[in-house]
Amino acid sequence: MEISGKKWASAALLSILIPISLLATSRFTGILQEPLMPETIEAETVNWNITRPLLNSGDAVPLHKTIVNSYEDSSILTRFEVNVGAYYEDYAESFFPFYGNDGLEIRLNATAEVTKGFVHSIAFSFSQQEGNATLEIWNDPKAMELYNVKLANLHDAWLIEETYAEFYGENQSQRCGVEIQVAWVFFDKNRMDQQIATTLELVYFDGTTYRKAVLPILLKVLTP
Q1: Is 28 contained in some domain?
Q2: How far apart, in whole angstroms, are the C-alpha atoms of residue 48 and residue 65?
Q3: Which of 70, 100, 135, 152 is deepest in the core (most CB within 10 A)?
C-alpha cells in the first residue's frame, strides 16, 4: 500500500520516527524471549533490483512493485511481502522523511497461518550490505496494521550492528499478520549503488515443537 506525499507529511506531525543506522548483521536479538533452539527453516533469498530513474530534482515516480518470499509445509503457510511504493529524487528539504535526499517508500507485510499450534512471534530485521543510507520506521499505530500480534520492540539507536522490529503473537493465535511503513533514504547523491537485506523471522509452535521460518529479501538500487 502506497502512502501519498500529503499523507506522509500529515503523519509526520503525529508520529514518532525511529532513525536506524544500517550496518552488517548476522542476527538480531531484542526483548522477545525466543524458545530455546527452535528448528530453523531458511528459505532462499529473493533478489530485486532497480536502476534509479532519471528524474529532475524534487520529482517522484510511482513503482508499485511487490517482492514476495514465502514458505509452506503441512503445518504452516507464511508470506513476506516488500511493497515498494515510489522513488523520490532530491525530494524537497522540508518533505519528511527525505529532506532533500533520494529514497524509496516501502511497506513490509508478513502473514502466517498454522494448522496446529500457534504463532509465537514475527520480526523484521534490516542490514545495509553496501551504500550510504538510513532507514526510517514509522513507530505510529496509524502506520501499522497488526492482526493478533502486539508490538514488542523497535531498535532505535544509531551506529548499531543490528536493527529490527519485533512483534509477539497474542492469545496463541493460529493466524497472525503485520504491516509496517518504512522509508529507505539515500545520502550518496547518485554516486553509488545501494543494497539492503530485509528478513522476516517467524517463530511458531506446530503442536509438537517450536520452529523458525527465515525469509530473506535483498533489495538493490543501482546508479544510472
Answers
A1: no
A2: 10
A3: 135
Domain annotation covers residue 191:
yes
| Continuous H helices in the chain | 5-12
| pLDDT tens track, the chain, 224 positions | 444 444 444 344 333 344 433 333 334 444 456 676 889 999 999 999 999 998 998 899 999 999 999 999 999 999 999 999 999 998 877 677 888 899 999 999 999 999 999 999 999 999 888 878 888 888 888 889 999 999 999 875 443 346 689 999 999 999 999 999 998 999 888 889 999 999 999 999 999 999 999 999 999 999 98
For the whole model, what pTM was predicted? 0.82
| Residue 74 half-sphere exposure toward CB, CA atoms < 13 A | 2
Return the C-alpha cell found at 110: 508478513
Tally of domains in the chain: 1
Give 36-42 contacts, CB < 8 A, sequence gap 24+.
38/203, 38/209, 38/210, 38/211, 38/212, 39/209, 39/210, 39/211, 39/212, 40/211, 40/212, 40/214, 41/71, 41/73, 41/211, 41/212, 41/213, 41/214, 42/214, 42/216
27 assigned to some structural domain: no
The domain in which residue 118 lies consists of 5-22+35-222
Per 3-state DSSP, the chain is made up of helix, strand and coil in percentages (nearest 5) of 5, 55, 40
